[in-house]
């Protein structure tokens, strides 16, 4: 079991020589590190010209562990050997430390380095790496691993504090400068000293925190100031994993300029709960995806289609109180079907990726402007007008595909999602969509239902300045976001998604009864997004029976009137339904059926005209039969009325788990009324 640790570069804004004088004061003990009981000098060798010093110490450390643990292993202290190689000529101090105690059971190796800042010779850098290899430790391997992580975190946090403490102590004594080492008159020895220092670094494989050999300048020096300004608060262990992943990427990519930013690496680590190997795998896949699809050029190459410019209800809108860019999406005003028929699934995906790329750009601009870390953006989703027409099956399929792509390639870019004016239909949509959203992303959603209208503006003011709240949400700020609305059919492509889907099923549809009545128990009805087409003569009906055994499950439907007019009704039947052969006769025309006695109209009859689309849903509160009923009152000269339909059942388990905070805003039965779109 090997654990690796690595710290980012720590920068002291003092010359190397002053830092070294402060460093010497921490021996043999210092108050900031009470765990170090003593440091005995074993040997101390200085080069003739004074350019190098090699010091070996044996350090005694108290065992920082529970009493019972110390009793079991039988020791109160452990010993470490430390070797310091100080090179005044090249202004470096290399430190190596290994454990002497229990060396056959556990190996601890730590390497630290102080060196002059590559860009500012009056500053000093420090980096640190460590490995912990636990072979066998009395059955306490896991406990030792935890203690090792704890000890590394403590020493990393204390290290800079200790140097700063002793520098201030030196200042109090009037020592603010220390002369640099200068070679003697005979410069040959110092030349050898410099060469030997470089040889030692090469032999030991000493590299900077980026894995770049000394003398080659890294793209960005990851120091404490950079982390505070661009990455935010990180624990030492998180910093270590960030550097570990960065080093792995460097090993895979020779061109340093092609490496992702630290912000991007950090996002992938957070999305994989800091598992470095998992983050590396998905990040490499994402980098390949970006290359294969020329994503780096998307902002320059993408030409927004006219239908998007004129009808897409989304756009950027100022910043929230945390400096995050805000994107507003008036989803309830979006014509999902019209948009997909106009630009297709690929076009909608490209639009979504363009928004994500814009978001990354705006995040960076905001962070630079504020001088503080901004790592993600906010999404404000207005659901006013949301209905089942937005759950058009091909549209949902396209949305899930987009979510999958964004989750894979833009993890942790969404800082907060404010969902406002959520109507009754929203739990249905949330049930379908939420299963495809990462758990961490789901936790960032904040909901305001229609019933919360009076407190919504007050709630938004927690995250957005009052003067920036959009006017359509009760604020005073005008936005550049388009109103949306139905997209004219003149903008549709010749081959729509619906037409393609119908063509694929033409053979299946021909096999159906021309006037048919279908029956289905609805218990395991997974239609995989497939629609069925039937034709009805004048006076004929088409009925689909759902035998429900799952109380509180949700029946959803989506249909198009391809030709003619239709009447649509949803019924609930409390008695067994007979087999019926006559397509011109409904169940409810039979003598032993009486409305209000053994069958009930669950949804008001809806008159649907030529080329209309209808979507709806209903919570099935009873273990009864439910009947989707279509009736053709008349046919035109074009021929029989044509219906293209799909239905699906959402289990009660899924439905109950969705959006419980909004349940009080829904009626007891209908999740939503049927909605028509033209």
UniProtKB/TrEMBL annotation:
<dbReference type="InterPro" id="IPR036273">
    <property type="entry name" value="CRAL/TRIO_N_dom_sf"/>
</dbReference>
<feature type="region of interest" description="Disordered">
    <location>
        <begin position="499"/>
        <end position="526"/>
    </location>
</feature>
<dbReference type="InterPro" id="IPR001251">
    <property type="entry name" value="CRAL-TRIO_dom"/>
</dbReference>
<dbReference type="InterPro" id="IPR051064">
    <property type="entry name" value="SEC14/CRAL-TRIO_domain"/>
</dbReference>
<dbReference type="Pfam" id="PF03765">
    <property type="entry name" value="CRAL_TRIO_N"/>
</dbReference>
<protein>
    <submittedName>
        <fullName>Protein real-time isoform X1</fullName>
    </submittedName>
</protein>
<feature type="domain" description="CRAL-TRIO">
    <location>
        <begin position="304"/>
        <end position="481"/>
    </location>
</feature>
<dbReference type="Pfam" id="PF04707">
    <property type="entry name" value="PRELI"/>
</dbReference>
<dbReference type="InterPro" id="IPR036598">
    <property type="entry name" value="GOLD_dom_sf"/>
</dbReference>
<dbReference type="InterPro" id="IPR006797">
    <property type="entry name" value="PRELI/MSF1_dom"/>
</dbReference>
<dbReference type="Pfam" id="PF00650">
    <property type="entry name" value="CRAL_TRIO"/>
</dbReference>
<dbReference type="GO" id="GO:0005737">
    <property type="term" value="C:cytoplasm"/>
</dbReference>
<feature type="domain" description="PRELI/MSF1">
    <location>
        <begin position="3"/>
        <end position="175"/>
    </location>
</feature>
<dbReference type="InterPro" id="IPR036865">
    <property type="entry name" value="CRAL-TRIO_dom_sf"/>
</dbReference>
<dbReference type="InterPro" id="IPR011074">
    <property type="entry name" value="CRAL/TRIO_N_dom"/>
</dbReference>
């Amino acid at each position: 079991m090997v654990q690796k640790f690595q710290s980012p570069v720590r920068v002291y804004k003092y010359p190397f020589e002053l830092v070294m004088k402060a460093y010497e004061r921490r021996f043999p003990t210092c108050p900031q590190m009470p765990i170090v009981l003593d440091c005995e000098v074993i040997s101390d060798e200085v080069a003739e010209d004074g350019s190098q010093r090699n010091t070996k110490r044996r350090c005694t450390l108290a065992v920082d562990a529970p009493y019972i643990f110390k009793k079991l292993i039988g020791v109160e202290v452990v010993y470490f050997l430390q070797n310091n190689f100080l090179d005044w000529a090249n202004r470096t101090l290399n430190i190596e430390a290994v454990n002497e105690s229990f060396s056959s059971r556990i190996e601890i190796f730590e390497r630290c380095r102080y060196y002059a800042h590559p860009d500012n010779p009056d500053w000093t850098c420090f980096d640190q790496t460590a490995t912990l290899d636990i072979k066998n430790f009395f059955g306490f391997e896991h406990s030792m691993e935890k203690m090792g992580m704890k000890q590394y975190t403590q020493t990393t946090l204390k290290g800079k504090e200790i140097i700063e403490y002793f520098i201030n102590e030196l200042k109090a004594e009037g020592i603010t400068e220390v002369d640099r080492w200068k070679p003697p008159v005979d410069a040959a020895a110092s030349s050898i000293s410099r060469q030997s220092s470089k040889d030692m670094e090469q032999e030991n494989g000493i590299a900077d925190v980026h894995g770049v050999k000394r003398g080659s300048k890294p793209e960005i020096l990851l120091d404490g100031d950079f982390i505070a300004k661009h990455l935010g608060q990180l624990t030492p262990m998180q910093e270590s994993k960030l550097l570990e992943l960065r080093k792995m990427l460097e090993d895979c990519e020779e061109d340093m300029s092609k490496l992702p930013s630290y912000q991007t690496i950090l996002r992938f680590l957070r999305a994989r709960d800091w598992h470095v190997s998992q983050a590396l795998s998905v990040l490499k896949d994402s980098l390949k995806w970006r290359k294969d699809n020329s994503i780096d050029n998307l902002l320059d190459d993408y030409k927004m289609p006219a239908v998007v410019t004129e009808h897409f209800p989304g756009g950027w809108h100022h910043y929230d109180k945390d400096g995050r860019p805000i994107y507003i999406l008036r989803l309830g005003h979006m014509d999902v079907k019209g948009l997909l028929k106009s630009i297709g699934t690929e076009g909608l995906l490209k639009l979504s990726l363009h928004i994500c790329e814009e978001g990354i750009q705006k995040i960076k601009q905001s962070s630079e402007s504020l001088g503080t870390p901004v790592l993600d953006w906010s999404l404000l989703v207005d659901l006013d007008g949301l209905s089942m027409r937005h759950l058009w099956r091909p549209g949902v399929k396209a949305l899930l595909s987009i979510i999958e792509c964004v989750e894979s390639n833009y993890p942790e870019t969404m800082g907060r999602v404010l969902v406002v004016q959520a109507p009754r239909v929203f739990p249905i949509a949330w049930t379908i969509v939420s299963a495809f959203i990462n758990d961490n992303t789901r936790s960032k959603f904040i909901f305001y239902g229609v019933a919360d209208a009076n407190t919504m503006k007050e709630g938004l003011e927690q995250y957005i300045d009052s003067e920036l709240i959009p006017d359509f949400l009760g604020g005073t700020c005008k936005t550049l976001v388009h109103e949306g609305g139905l997209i004219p059919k003149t903008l549709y492509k010749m081959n729509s998604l619906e037409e393609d889907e119908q063509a694929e099923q033409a053979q299946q549809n021909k096999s159906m009864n021309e006037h048919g009545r279908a029956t289905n128990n609805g218990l395991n009805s997974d239609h995989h997004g497939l629609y069925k087409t039937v034709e009805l003569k004048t006076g004929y009906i088409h009925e689909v029976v759902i035998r429900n055994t799952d109380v509180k499950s949700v029946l959803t439907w989506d249909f198009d009137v391809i030709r003619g007019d239709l009447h649509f009704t949803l019924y609930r039947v409390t008695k067994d339904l007979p087999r019926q052969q006559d397509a011109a006769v409904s169940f409810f025309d039979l003598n032993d059926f009486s409305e209000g006695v053994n069958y009930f109209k669950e949804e008001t009859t809806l008159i649907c005209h030529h080329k209309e689309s209808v979507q709806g849903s209903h919570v099935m509160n009873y273990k009864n039969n439910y009947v989707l009923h279509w009736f053709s009152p008349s046919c035109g000269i074009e021929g029989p009325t044509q219906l293209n339909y799909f239905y699906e059942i959402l289990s009660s388990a899924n439905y109950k788990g969705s959006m419980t905070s909004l349940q009080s805003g829904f009626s007891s039965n209908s999740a939503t009324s049927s909605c028509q779109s033209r």
